[in-house]
Specification:
Elements lengths: L14 H14 L5 E2 L11 H12 L12 H13 L9 E4 L2 H12 L5 E6 L3 H9 L3 E6 L11 H7 L4 E7 L11 H14 L2 E5 L24 E6 L12 E4 L2 H14 L5 H13 L1 H24 L12 E5 L4 H11 L2 E2 L1 E2 L8 E5 L4 H13 L4
Parallel strand pairs: 1-10, 3-4, 3-5, 5-6, 6-7
Antiparallel strand pairs: 2-8, 7-8, 9-12, 11-12
Helix pairs in contact: 2-9, 3-9, 4-5, 4-8, 10-12
The protein binds pyridoxal-5'-phosphate.
The site of pyridoxal-5'-phosphate has 13 residues, from helix 4.
Length: about 375
Amino acid sequence: AYDFSERIGRVAPSATLAISNLAAEKEAEGADIVDLSVGEPDFDTPENIVEAGKDALDAGHTGYTSSNGIPQLKEAIAEKLRGTGIDADADEVIVTPGGKQALYETFQTLIDDGDEVVLLDPAWVSYEAMAKLAGADLSRVDLAPHGFQLEPALDQLAETVSDDTELLVVNSPSNPTGAVFSEAALEGVRDLAVEHDVAVISDEIYEQITYDADHLSLASLDGMADRTVTINGFSKAYSMTGWRLGYLHATEEFVGQAGKLHSHSVSCAVNFVQRAGVEALENTDESVTEMRDAFRDRRDLLVDLFDEHGVDVDVGDGAFYMMIPVDEDDQAWCEAAIEEASVACVPGSAFNAPGYARISYAASEERLREAVDRLVSNDLL
Ligand code: PLP
């Protein structure tokens, strides 16, 4: 029989995937589920990117690439990062199969057993799992009482971060709240990180999906260049979830260390996908804007619909998620939502935010209306 590692026992399966699987099962049985549980844009990958992928296949780009990525893509990524004020060089980039792998490599590269990692709750599910796999002890700061914003919680963050802290994880725009952190909040993070010599992961995967607030890259702030690992990817901005393409940017020294894990695990990201990634970065602004505008319209629609039914939501300014207040037992509420109303959403508990449910509004306006109607007619709102 297998003797499973203590390490693998530290983590639970992804709660978001569990709900999506349940929704898929019910759909297979013929149920009409409005699935608002998934973290992926509902748009096709823009045509120019698909064509670039096909062209790359036809041109025979099917072998391994250099481990950290093809030079054209690393250069395009560095150029893109320079656009948000990060003094980036192609040698400071590792191209990964998805942002998730970039995060995984980062935790493994920085964390020893017993190191303290600070998370801002509600936090995306996989940070906790990745931190625990690396042996971290977690400390958490709850943003829920502050409308999911970081700026009003800076005092609590200051009480939590100390010289013993190894790593702080920041995700703006946020999954699951959609919150975009203010410049003052990020400067507060910088001040604490510098004071206590803490490394920071800045997960900016929803960077392109912001509405009225401006996105700010943490690594562009004074004092952050040599302590930030910037994570980004193509899944959300370019609707490329299944292509699996992302990256990390940090110092060359960091890339040297993390690159060992990268080369011994995934070897490299997929060759023709990397070539499509160059096209995505260089020629897709129009599609990105169209998708962003659609997300904004849907968010506004949902806010109006919830408002009509007396549900007060702390509305985020980015990503395509919203946390709505539900029963204290959010797990039971989400079960009722799927069983009785055929609407799938993710319990807030999965993000360490009990009493909420996460709604992904990467769905058509018609389906969003349908979801709210069903929740209302089943007395769930
Ligand atoms: N970071 C956050 C906050 C996410 O929500 C996701 C995807 O759900 C990722 C990273 C990883 O995405 P991918 O691995 O598809 O690039």
